[in-house]
Amino acid sequence: MAGTRCICAAGRRVCKLPTRNHLMEKLTQRVSKSHSLLCIGLDPTGNDQSVAARLREVVAQTAEYAAAYKPNLAFFLSREGGVELLRQTVASVPDGIPVILDGKFGDIANTAEHYARFAYDVIGADGVTVNPYMGDDAIVPFARPGKMVFVLAKTSNKPAHSLQDVALTRGGYLSDLAAGVCRKLDEEHHNIGLVVGATHADAMARMREISPEQWFLVPGIGAQGGDLQATLRAGLRADGAGLLINASRSIWQAADAGAAARDLFQQINEQRSVLA
Ligand SMILES: O=c1ccn([C@@H]2O[C@H](COP(=O)(O)O)[C@@H](O)[C@H]2O)c(=O)[nH]1
């Protein structure tokens, strides 16, 4: 498939990426340029006076190591002027680095269309996270050409098992069903990934079996205690990519955010080279 003519939003030109990945092109190009699978989470805590400066500082110090940024909408909405702060933060991210707005959206299509306008047209994000519980129509409005949708499949929080590990009579778990539905959607839209937590390596392996090619956004490393080595072993694709390893508090709260990002970037790449 390499070198085929692209007719997607990226434009009509010869491209080395497999055709089905074109709509994730910004991400794949950034991963390849930065040699990074690290996603810097932006969950800004602290007072309104200092937070804007800290956001600028964290972005500037970590950009070299960032494959993507993931601002969490809740941490912005909980502040006076939070939407404008979010918009400015997204605008401060250097060109070429994708920003995934972690809003965990999920409503009927008519409403989802408005969330999509907010995320993409108001905020300027390149991708979003979406909750699939309401079905396909909660997901599809976000799958605009050139954008990325990461759908919650197996989340990192411990109580996730109460719903996501419910066994289906036909075999497998509810999280497997979500992953399967998303794989079908990705075959049509080419820009649907999954959220798979780093805290359940067995589930990561299952998700990778169901979705051998899709990108996974992976929270749970750092403050939540996920096992980096087990996560990479279970979830990396055959090409050594396919995972975006997120860290939020462990970078935001570090005295030197740049050093914290560099350490994690290096750990990820050391493990990738061992596993390659
Ligand atoms: O399954 C999920 C989905 C999303 N999150 C979000 O990721 C970050 C994790 O923050 P840390 O400080 O690195 O633990 C946060 O924004 C969560 O809302 C998740 O943790 N698990």
Automatic annotation (TrEMBL):
Q: Does the keyword Cell cycle apply?
A: no
The record's EC number reads 4.1.1.23
Keyword set, alphabetical order: Decarboxylase, Lyase, Pyrimidine biosynthesis
What the entry lists under InterPro entries is as follows: Aldolase_TIM, OMPdecase_AS, OMPdecase_type-2, OMPdeCOase_dom, RibuloseP-bd_barrel
Listed under catalytic activity are: orotidine 5'-phosphate + H(+) = UMP + CO2
- Tell me which residues make up the Orotidine 5'-phosphate decarboxylase domain: 37-264
Q: Could you confirm whether the keyword Lyase appears in this record?
A: yes
GO BP term (any one) = 'de novo' UMP biosynthetic process
Enzyme class, spelled out? lyase
As one GO molecular function, the record gives:
orotidine-5'-phosphate decarboxylase activity
Q: In which pathway does it act?
A: Pyrimidine metabolism; UMP biosynthesis via de novo pathway; UMP from orotate: step 2/2
| Origin: domain of life | Bacteria
Could you say which protein family the record assigns here?
A: Belongs to the OMP decarboxylase family. Type 2 subfamily.
PANTHER family, sorted: OROTIDINE 5'-PHOSPHATE DECARBOXYLASE
* Protein's UniProt name: Orotidine-5'-phosphate decarboxylase
